[in-house]
Specification:
- It is built from 11 helices and 11 strands.
- It is of the alpha/beta class.
- The model has no long low-confidence stretch (mean pLDDT 96).
- Helices cover 43% and strands 16% of the residues.
- The protein binds 1,4-dihydronicotinamide adenine dinucleotide.
- The site of 1,4-dihydronicotinamide adenine dinucleotide has 33 residues, from helix 4.
- It catalyses: (S)-malate + NAD(+) = oxaloacetate + NADH + H(+).
């Protein structure tokens, strides 16, 4: 039995993400939770002829508890998205409380699940989830992930538009965090390798860092990336399932994770990022979650500058999440 849960399943990301998870044959049960409309989304998806049994839950009658019980994997796209002119940090006020309360229920009802956090600002919501799980004594650093896959997906697409490569075959490690200057694409490590001009590097870096703004602007008040995010979230969930359920070895995906997991290489990254407790780096997945956090590798002079610029903002974002939980009753 492999139960996947989506918290915020009726939203712009939640619906297409739930559809893509319904198409994943490893999942046998798909529980959809939201404060509105989740039974409708569940009924609709339940007619698709794939193995997963789909159920929908609302808050009354212990909906969240039932949705979470026996979960293998939980994806969280609950919360408000950006409107034009907003940064991801502007969402903190509303989303921090939503994520805190969901994490409290995860700690109680599914403490062993893999938790994938999409809700923004990811740089702060991941520390919030970790602090709540720690408070309940159930934190496992190998099982909590900030989903930065959309940055990786965008990097493959945008670089291919310049190099002419097949975007599906291109891999760019995107490290750091998930907002503006904290997003650091390591174009010097692109595979297959390609020598971009410095002008292209700078333009591509900016586009990858602020790619989300293109969507927010085009949607003109109707939200942020939902369809590409759903695909990215489903890809990351599928990587977790392939590693933890199917036992596939050697899967590597960048993800924003807690770095205190000394046994898995977090300490090595931590030393190169000025002691930050969270950072996105290439994460190798295994049957128990994070198998190894890979070091950042050799950085170009330009990438070193990007890292320098990212660290203070990341530190502030992390501290904001940690303090929020410390100050919550
Ligand atoms: P949306 O507003 O369309 O959907 C959010 C859903 O969350 C709604 O259905 C709402 O009812 C639900 N919700 C609100 N409070 C809840 C609670 N307490 N429990 C369960 N569900 C709750 O927003 P959208 O576009 O789906 O975005 C969701 C989040 O994902 C936003 O915070 C957005 O910034 C973030 N995002 C993250 C990305 C990433 O790369 N990590 C990319 C794009 C968006």
């Amino acid at each position: 039995m492999v139960k996947a849960v989506v918290l915020g399943a009726a939203g712009g990301i939640g619906q297409p993400l739930s559809l893509l998870l319904k198409l994943n044959n490893t999942i046998t049960e798909l529980a959809l939770y939201d404060i509105v409309n989740s039974p409708g989304v569940a009924a609709d998806l339940s007619h698709i002829n794939t193995p997963a049994k789909v159920t929908g839950y609302l808050p009354p009658n212990d909906g969240l508890k039932i949705a979470l019980t026996n979960a293998h994997l939980i994806v969280i796209p609950a919360g408000v998205p950006r409107k034009p002119g907003m940064t991801r940090d502007d969402l903190f006020k509303i989303n921090a409380g939503i994520v805190r309360d969901l994490a409290t229920n995860i700690a109680k009802y599914s403490p062993n699940a893999y938790v994938l956090i999409i809700s923004n600002p990811v740089n702060s919501t991941v520390p919030i989830v970790v602090e709540i799980l720690k408070k309940h004594g159930v934190f496992d650093a190998k099982k909590v992930f900030g989903v930065t896959t959309l940055d990786v997906v965008r990097a493959s697409t945008f670089t291919s538009s310049v190099s002419g490569a097949n975007p599906q075959e291109v891999r760019v490690p995107v490290v750091g965090g998930h907002s503006g200057v904290t997003i650091i694409p390591l174009l010097s490590q692109i595979a297959p390798s390609y020598n971009f001009s410095q002008e292209d590097i700078e333009a591509l870096t900016k586009r990858i860092q602020f790619g989300g703004d293109e969507v927010v602007k085009a949607k003109d008040g109707a939200g942020s990336a939902t369809l590409s995010m759903a695909q990215a979230g489903a890809r990351f969930a599928s990587s977790i399932l392939n590693a933890t359920v199917s036992g596939e070895a050697g899967i590597i995906e960048p993800s924003y994770v807690h770095l205190d997991a000394d046994s898995v290489g977090g300490d090595q990254v931590k030393n190169t990022v000025d002691g930050l407790d969270y950072f996105s780096s290439n994460v190798e997945l295994g049957k128990n979650g994070i198998e190894k956090i890979h070091p950042l590798g050799d950085l170009s002079e330009y990438e070193k500058k990007l890292l320098e610029a990212a660290i203070p903002e990341l530190r502030a974002n992390i501290n904001k999440g940690v303090s929020f939980v410390a100050e919550s009753k």
